Amino acid sequence: MWEARSSSFWRAVFAEFFGTMIYVLFGLGAALRWVAGPHNVLQVALAFGLVAATMVQALGHISGAHINPAVTVAFLLGSQLSLFRAVFYVAAQVLGGVAGAAVLYGVTPAALRGNLALNTMHPSVSLGQAVTVEIFLTLQFVLCIFATYDERRNGRMGSVALAVGFSLTLGHLFGMYYTGTGMNPARSFAPAIITRSFTNHWVYWVGPMIGGAFGGFLYDFILFPRMRGISERLSILKGERPDEPESPPEPPGEPIELKTQAL
């Protein structure tokens, strides 16, 4: 794969690792219980929303700042990045999430770690209800990402980073009482692997993956379709190198810089 020989590709993969690490570290850290009493849902929702907005602003131009396997899979199904890149993104996100949870575990006093803000379902919520909630939480989030990231929107209004952050905040405000709000398999997996607690963990993979895929399909194929043929979509998925337009010869002594599309 030509992408593997590109320094920009590896910078993007590292950006996904680093961005997910910061997202999990700050998000889970804000969700820890330092005092007795119920969760401060607004605090947790704002923390996740703000750290997501920060990472989009800081890393969006490098990797797209997916920092979420469900988002990456949605972009893959929409033929907006190659399978090769998607695999490395998801691996980087999962490892970054685990790294963030490990750092949080190390800097938090043992008496206050608890379950490290592990996603848990409300006792009254059934498995079917939990999966459905996760589907809709992630659907609206991915729909927002696809709409705000869309380069075809010439009249984009406002801040992309804030739009993504508000969408994530909205999801937490609604979902905290139902499922603890996953919306991101890397976020759910990180505390689960650190605490070795995987009860109903599949909910936090299946729900977001279905919701993300449906959100991407809804935007890219129904609401604002991309007019691409099957051959073009397959070319993108296979990661074939795009044809570069002809340009004047570079002056002697100056290297030719390959231009790749940022995803």
From TrEMBL:
Keywords tagged on the record: Cell junction, Cell membrane, Eye lens protein, Membrane, Transmembrane, Transmembrane helix, Transport
Location(s) in or outside the cell: Cell junction; Cell membrane
Gene3D superfamilies for the chain: Glycerol uptake facilitator protein
PROSITE patterns in UniProt: MIP (PS00221)
Region (Disordered): 238-263
Gene Ontology molecular functions: cell adhesion mediator activity; structural constituent of eye lens; water channel activity
A Gene Ontology term for the protein's cellular component: anchoring junction
Coiled coil: none
Pfam families: MIP
Any one of the GO BP annotations: visual perception
Segments traversing the membrane: 12-35, 41-62, 83-107, 127-148, 160-179, 202-224
Superkingdom as given in the UniProt entry: Eukaryota
Membrane topology qualifier: Multi-pass membrane protein
Record's catalysed reaction(s): H2O(in) = H2O(out)
NCBIfam families: MIP
Family: Belongs to the MIP/aquaporin (TC 1.A.8) family.
Function: Aquaporins form homotetrameric transmembrane channels, with each monomer independently mediating water transport across the plasma membrane along its osmotic gradient. Specifically expressed in lens fiber cells, this aquaporin is crucial for maintaining lens water homeostasis and transparency. Beyond water permeability, it also acts as a cell-to-cell adhesion molecule, forming thin junctions between lens fiber cells that are essential for maintaining the ordered structure and transparency of the lens.
Protein known as: Lens fiber major intrinsic protein
